[in-house]
Amino acid sequence: MRVVLDHSIVGQSFTSLSIRKDREFAGCAICGRVFQARLAIELSDGEWNADALLFEHAVAIETKEWRERHNKSHTQREHEAFRASGRTFSPEAAYKLAPFGLVSLDDAQEDEVAAAMLEAPRAPSDDVETTLKGWV
Ligand SMILES: [Zn+2]
Q1: 104 - beta bridge partners?
Q2: Distance 98 CA to ligand 1 centre (A)
Q3: Distance 7 CA to ligand 1 centre (A)
Q4: CA of residue 75 to ligand 1 center, whole Å
Q5: pLDDT class for 25, splitting at 50, 70, 90?
Q6: Would you kindly state where each structural domain of the chain is located, as residue ranges?
Q7: In whole angstroms, what separates CA 122 from the centre of its chain?
Q8: Is the pLDDT of residue 50 over 50?
Q9: What count of other Cβ atoms lies within 10 Å of the Cβ of residue 55?
Q10: HSE-up of residue 72 (Cα within 13 Å, Cβ side)
């Protein structure tokens, strides 16, 4: 079992960062790219709640498609090396995900990962990858 602390993004209200952490999103444990379906980002709470089950389902499908497509952007060797490391996040991913409020407690005792999280900016430097499928 892996333990990941998921907390809010420090100062998010002062940025133009487009992510809704109260809705489904995905992050890559190898490179730290973050994805959230545009539907999840753009719908107001009122719009979302009007048909939440449908929107949750649509976002889940799009997120799954992103995961499958993104996984192919890494070589088999990268996947194997990451699995062999036994880590929750690579140091690169830990650096990028920590500002999004995602911290692996299991990796925090490894010097390389701990240093990456310590040196990570307090606010995300990369915006969220998203797509538009015409559902909005
Ligand atoms: Zn990746």
Answers
A1: 4
A2: 15
A3: 21
A4: 10
A5: very high
A6: 4-9+20-119
A7: 16
A8: yes
A9: 21
A10: 5
